[in-house]
Amino acid sequence: MNILSVIIAGILGLLMVVYITLLFVTIIFNVKIAENYRQGLAEKLDELRLSSMLDVMGININTYLHSESILDIRRQMAQCSDCQNIDACDETIKNHDSDISDDISFCNNEDEIKTILQRKSKEE
């Protein structure tokens, strides 16, 4: 091996180490950004009845935030905030002792909630 081959191999090795290091740092950075984003989403979700409805239906909020896509969560939050069935929702949340899993037809997110419940029951 001549000296030029050794220098080129050394440069390529160094570039590989730099690339792997930057890749690792970028992944950690993106994970932290995602955690912060989901935390903000959780805070906004807490302001809506959707959070209480998910809790009443037995859906863990953290699991919900990590298993559903961000677009779906934002759409469901918008549907909840635009809802006109506030009285029925409040009554359902207030009287959560009974089995309400089939009695949420007033909810704008009924289909999504039932889909989440079906998925949850398959996982258990």
Concise synopsis of the structure shown:
This protein has 124 residues and is an all-alpha fold. It has helices at residues 3-46, 49-56, 61-67, 70-81, 86-94, 110-123.
Structure description:
The protein contains six helices and no strands. The mean pLDDT is about 90. About 75% of the residues lie in helices and about 0% in strands. Helix 2 crosses helix 5 (about 85-95). It is mostly helical.
Structural class: mainly alpha
Largest sheet: none
Low-confidence stretches: none
Oligomer status:
single chain
For the residues shown, what is the average pLDDT?
A: 90
Helix tally? Answer: 6
Number of strands: 0
Radius of gyration: 24 Å
Q: What separation lies between the terminal Cα atoms? A: 61 Å
* Share of helical residues: over 70%
Strand content: under 5%
The helix-strand sequence is: HHHHHH
Q: What global shape is seen?
A: elongated
